[in-house]
Amino acid sequence: MKVIVPVKRVPDTAGDKVIDADTKTMDRDAGETVLCPVNEFAIEEAVKLKEATGAEVTVLLIGPDGAQSTIRKALSYGLDGAIQVTDDAISGSDALGTARVIAAALADVEFDVVIFGNQSTDARTSLVPAAVAELLDLPSLTYARFMEIDGDAITVHREHEEGWDVVESTLPAVVSVVEAINEPRYPNFKGIMAAKSKPLDVKSLADLGVDAAAVGAGDAAATMYAFEPRPPKAAGTIVTDDGSGSAADDLADWMEEQKFI
Amino acid sequence: MSCLLVLIDHAEGTPRKVSLQMLTAARRLAAETGDSVAAAWFGEDADDAMEALGAGGVETLYWWDDPDADAYVTLPKVEALEAVLDTADVSAILFASSNHTKDVAARLAIRRDGGVITDVTDLAVEDGTIVATKEVFGGATITQSKVADGKLALFGVSPNAFPVEEGDGGEPEVVDLDVELSESATAARVTDVEKEASADRPDIGEAAIVVAGGRGLGSEDGFELMEELADVLGAGVGASRAATDAGWYPHRYQIGQTGRTISPMLYIGSGISGAIQHRAGMQTSQNIVAINKDAEAPIFQIADFGIVGDLYDVVPALVEELRARTD
Ligand SMILES: Cc1cc2nc3c(=O)[nH]c(=O)nc-3n(C[C@H](O)[C@H](O)[C@H](O)COP(=O)(O)OP(=O)(O)OC[C@H]3O[C@@H](n4cnc5c(N)ncnc54)[C@H](O)[C@@H]3O)c2cc1C
Ligand SMILES: Nc1ncnc2c1ncn2[C@@H]1O[C@H](COP(=O)(O)O)[C@@H](O)[C@H]1O
């Protein structure tokens, strides 16, 4: 079985995030960057498939040279190799543009299942997995809190607000996973050392036959054109309870004032 | 005449609150763009909702009255929307920015050369173009975006971004859609639907009040106290990741960066420290109440009302006090 895990480099949530005032895109070199934490759940599912069936797992990242440390991090979980698509023309793509590049990269490789994170922690659009599935004319089994592959059949439990749907299809398929699906392991020393020498195939848009004019900021279907920081919030009322629960009365007063009761 | 199309999200015949809120948005936009307001309903049981849709300003309802809408994943709704696009002159589509519906928008945008903006908290018309407000970085930055000219504009609207306002429209004109599903559309079949109890509590995405519990509850039992508080207030119950990770409450109630984003009128967090990843999912709540025994907990920095104290002293007293006042 062949598995692809598309991964993204994102700013560390706890660090500073900077929007470049000229390009109106996130300045990804400004702060600490990490492998998107949601992708760790996708990697864990892939590693489980590797252990169960000997699956070959390839990481796919669309992003600049600076993102190679993210690729090595992903490989350190014991994955087999990576494809990176890097091209100045990609900069400023919206989610659908990114999806077009991912789909173009996948058109050239054999795979049975693509495992995405359900969202990236920075853009948080959740659009990429379904858009890639559409471009490849495959089922999109997204928001999986459980997945199982048996021969060429796949079953996922697709999370929603009230529970989940049990969904079945045949492979190949596109899956996205939510963090409830597993508990990712940590990479071990052997994996970290081995990651340095795993094959990395770097491609440009021209290699993929993608017209540079069709992606990137110039052709983004959705663009952000203005931004400002949220106005600071006035300090609230803080009371200390004396251990009797009497502060609850103050809160109830406040709730009454605010017309919540 | 061109129309603004609202994709109605409904639960077995009852439109979700976000659908009625989107109708408010559509009416406001239409007043400036000169469009009419239309809606799309996929699945059975629209009959009982006609009045509410009419009152919401829907002039034309495109109805695909077919159980296949939910029997397969995503694509039936995409293809039904394509049927609307083939019939009507649609200038923009508003959809609920919920997980499953974002997939519908993504696949439709690829098929019909669209642009999608998700998690929209406001919509306005500037120089004849619809512009969307969206909060990023966990609510720290507010942005304006638009879809490029000539593309089909798709806006995913967050719950509670708009009020529900009743107009005085009559019943909508119903246009029955005839949808022939492609082979791709039936490739992923829904074989079972698991719903868990709590259906009598509002969904945290839509609830006016959300009561949330964290690691400070100490155990799964603490959520009974949270539910008790929620039920006095008619609130939904949410959790921090520490609580969902511990298995005290299901993941789909997790609030935060890797859980749900909520913006209720009132959020009440107990035993939650207010880590940045949690704040990313609740910072935009209109009012924030925090109950935490550590006066230094970061949640107090964004609280409108905070109680430094043991939640097991404060919350039971609060429940009792609220019961007494609301009786
Ligand atoms: C990639 C990533 C994604 C994440 N996504 C999310 C997310 O979506 N949502 C989320 O919530 N977190 C998320 N987190 C985790 C986040 O960083 C915090 O670890 C988590 O929010 C902490 O949960 P908590 O506040 O319940 O627990 P803690 O931080 O342990 O806080 C517990 C609080 O309870 C208080 N307390 C204890 N006992 C009592 C008592 N008896 N009475 C009153 N107060 C008491 C303590 O003072 C403390 O402040 C994420 C982390 C990462 C790395
Ligand atoms: N630049 C990228 N390279 C590879 N995969 C990506 C990229 N951007 C997004 N993804 C994948 O798409 C998922 C959803 O991201 P998003 O649609 O941005 O919320 C992520 O979890 C990744 O698996």
If you had to describe this structure to a student in words, what would you say it looks like?
The complex is a heterodimer of chains A (about 260) and B (about 325). Chain A has helices at about 35-55, 70-75, 95-105, 130-135, 190-195, 205-210, 245-255, and strands spanning about 1-5, 10, 35, 55-60, 80-85, 115, 140-150, 155-160, 165-170, 175, 200-205, 220-230, 235-240. In chain A, the strands form 2 sheets. Chain A has a 9-stranded mixed sheet, with helices on both faces. In chain A, strand 7 and strand 8 form a beta hairpin. By secondary structure, chain A is an alpha/beta fold. The model of chain A has no long low-confidence stretch (mean pLDDT about 95). Chain A is globular. Chain A has 7 helices and 13 strands. Chain A has 2 domains: about 1-215, 3-Layer(aba) Sandwich (Rossmann fold); about 230-260, no CATH class. The longest helix of chain A is centred in the first third of the chain and has 17 residues, at about 35-55. By secondary structure, chain B is an alpha/beta fold. Chain B has a 9-stranded mixed sheet. In chain B, strands 14-13-15-16-17 form a 5-stranded parallel sheet. In chain B, strands 2-3 form a two-stranded antiparallel ribbon. The model of chain B has no long low-confidence stretch (mean pLDDT about 95). Chain B starts with a strand and ends with a helix. The longest helix of chain B is centred in the first third of the chain and has 17 residues, at about 15-35. Chain B is globular. Classes of the chains: A alpha/beta (about 260), B alpha/beta (about 325). Chains A and B meet through helix 3, helix 4, strand 7, strand 8 and strand 9 of A and helix 5, strand 7, strand 8, strand 9 and strand 12 of B. Bound molecules: flavin-adenine dinucleotide and adenosine monophosphate.
Mean pLDDT of chain A: 93
The CATH architecture of the largest domain in chain A comes to 3-Layer(aba) Sandwich
User: Helix-strand pattern of chain B, N to C?
Assistant: EEEHEHEHHEHEEEEEEEHEHEHEEH
Strand content of chain A: 25-35%
Total number of distinct structural domains of chain A: 2
Oligomer: heterodimer
How far apart, in Å, are the first and last alpha carbons of chain B? 52 Å
Element order, helices and strands of chain A? EEEHEHEHEHEEEEHEHEEH
Low-confidence stretches of chain B: none
Main sheet of chain A, how many strands, which sense, barrel? 9 strands, mixed
Query: What share of residues of chain B is helical?
Result: 25-40%
Order of the strands making up the biggest sheet of chain B? 9-8-7-10-6-1-4-5-11
Q: Main sheet of chain B?
A: 9 strands, mixed
